[in-house]
Design goal:
This protein has 355 residues and is mostly helical. It is 65% helix and 6% strand.
């Protein structure tokens, strides 16, 4: 879908509209009507090229004495209306691209007319006799066989065109329908995680709620510097989390009898190492530890890189609004995992026998 932000009301309307269009196509509603409704769907999704495409699908693509403009040609290509054919030019067969600009509505009317013509293009039952038994009597060239043949050929051509247009519209609408359904599912999942973190994180990190509020405000902006500020806030929240669950301490040296010793830095700035160390000390699941550790490692490296770039005066550290969104989502998911781990430890009864 488009990179432009679309409000939830429009998305909900688009989902219902896409369901309705699919139902109409499957029920045999006029394809011209379905094309216009698909144009409205594209408008709701701010998919402006396809909004124009579906309007032209119903009404026909504009053309003039010199053909169609490059802009309309690009739309025809996007609409899968450009076909390659071999044509003789300068005595040689050359591949030529041609775009069909005819409308669905006009084609449907023409198809109805062709079918009506076929109904009346029959040869009448005529009985001819002759007084001369040796004389052969025939109808000559007055039959309609050639006309019927040409009509059937035209009907097939127009029917194939309508089938192609139906498949094109159906494919677009069904794809958007699945995207919208998936978007709703993803939104519901994240909403539950966000609600859980927002209501629980204050007990562990008192200032986190205010920082997350700042994150939302910055994400709502159209300024890339504000998106970077949102990401910086995520870094500070993770630093506060590390201070709360695993305060800074001396580095740990892990001895390796087969090679060089490994130093785990646990100082003030090593907030990712400290969070991972907390997870390793609290989780009984090696798989959980690996997943959280891997996600934290990636997120921490990226947040630190953005922070260092900002310190050097680089403001274009976030490539897009979506990138900023991803880091905020990752931060929520990781904090949700840490909070659930802490809750599990509190809710699990101690197995140490009482004295």
């Amino acid at each position: 879908m488009s990179d432009i932000n679309i409000n939830s009301v429009s998305l909900e309307e688009a989902l219902k509209l896409s369901e309705g269009i699919l139902s109409d196509i499957e029920s045999g509603v006029s394809l011209g009507t379905c094309a216009l409704r698909a144009s409205r769907l594209a408008r709701l999704l701010q998919d402006f090229d396809f909004q124009r495409i579906f309007f032209y699908e119903n009404s026909g693509y504009p053309s003039g004495p010199n053909g169609i403009t490059p802009e309309i040609w690009a739309l025809c290509k996007k609409a899968e209306r450009v076909k390659s054919t071999l044509e003789k030019k300068d005595g040689q067969n050359k591949e030529i691209e041609r775009a069909s600009t005819k409308s669905i509505s006009a084609t449907l009317l023409n198809l109805d007319a062709l079918n009506e013509s076929l109904k009346v293009a029959y040869d009448p039952n005529i009985s001819l006799t002759s007084a001369n038994p040796a004389q052969f009597v025939g109808l000559g060239n007055s039959g309609n066989g050639l006309e019927r043949q040409n009509l059937r050929k035209s009907i097939k051509s127009e029917s194939d065109f309508i089938s192609e247009r139906l498949a094109f519209i159906y494919d677009y609408v069904s794809t958007k329908n699945y995207e919208l359904k998936f978007s709703n599912i993803s939104s519901d999942i994240f909403s539950r995680t966000r609600s859980y973190v927002d209501t629980s994180v204050g007990n562990l990190i008192p200032g986190a709620v205010q920082k997350f509020a700042s994150v939302y405000e910055n994400l709502a902006s159209d300024n890339s510097e504000d998106w970077s500020n949102a990401v910086h806030s995520c870094r500070r929240i993770l630093q506060d989390l590390a201070d709360a669950i695993f305060p800074a301490r001396d580095d740990i040296v892990l001895e390796n009898p087969r090679g060089k010793s490994k130093i785990i830095k646990l100082g003030k700035d090593n907030y990712i190492n400290r969070i991972i160390s907390y997870v390793e000390s609290q989780s009984n699941s090696e798989r959980f530890t690996d997943i959280v550790g891997s996600n934290l490692g990636f997120l921490g490296d990226r947040l630190d890189a953005i922070f260092k770039a900002a310190q050097k005066g680089s403001h274009d550290t976030i490539s897009s609004h979506k990138e900023a969104d991803r880091y905020v989502i990752y931060t929520y998911l990781i904090i949700g995992d840490i909070l659930s781990l802490a809750e599990d430890k509190v809710s699990t009864p101690s197995t140490t026998p009482s004295s």
